[in-house]
Amino acid sequence: MIGPVPTERPPRVPHLDDTSRAIIEHLQTDGRRSYADIGKAVGLSETAVRNRVQRLIDAGVMQIVAVTDPLQLGFARQAMVGIRTTGDSTRIASELTTLPEVTYVVLTAGSFDILAEVVCSSDDELIELLNHRIRAIDGVIATESFVYLRLVRQLYDWGTQ
Q1: If we measure between CA atoms, which residue out of 81, 80, 118, 78 comes closest to residue 100?
Q2: Is residue 10 over pLDDT 60?
Q3: How far is CA 20 from the centre of its chain?
Q4: Residue 81 φ/ψ, nearest 5 degrees
Q5: Residues in Cβ contact with 40 at an 8 Å cutoff, skipping those fewer than 6 apart
Q6: CB 3.0-4.6 Å disulfide test: which of 27, 54, 58, 77 passes with 120?
Q7: pLDDT bracket for residue 1 (50, 70, 90)
Q8: Lowest-confidence region among 16-30, 39-53, 69-83, 146-160
Q9: Which DSSP category does 86 fall into?
Q10: What are the phi and psi torsion angles at 118 (to 5°)?
Q11: Could you count the other beta carbons within 10 Å of the beta carbon of residue 123?
């Protein structure tokens, strides 16, 4: 007899009403837009928009940050590093997040178990990061680096569902 199949529950996603979605979309288009302007567009007061934005930030739904091109800011080397692992890839991903040069970590399916975006001040720093810190993590069996030559497009205004 085969027992019940364990099911994993998807992560809890906060309920977003149409007004919260509209606020997010306005901020995706222009993160500096005033809460008063957004309030006029969505039919709320400035205070109500400010409170909703804070709740969305606290819930981890969004961040408000300045998106920059590291290459334009003097960081000479940016790369995506594909990482093949053995064992618990979530542990390795968690360890990668402690490295200050690592700006993005995602678990993947396919040729790599993890993709990590890194920003370094030089090629020497990238070599040191790869050889002495990333490849030194227990369970990392191989890496492949994709060095960025030029940032062509980077958007964060995909809207909401």
Answers
A1: 118
A2: no
A3: 21
A4: -115, 120
A5: none
A6: 77
A7: very low
A8: 146-160
A9: S
A10: -125, 150
A11: 11
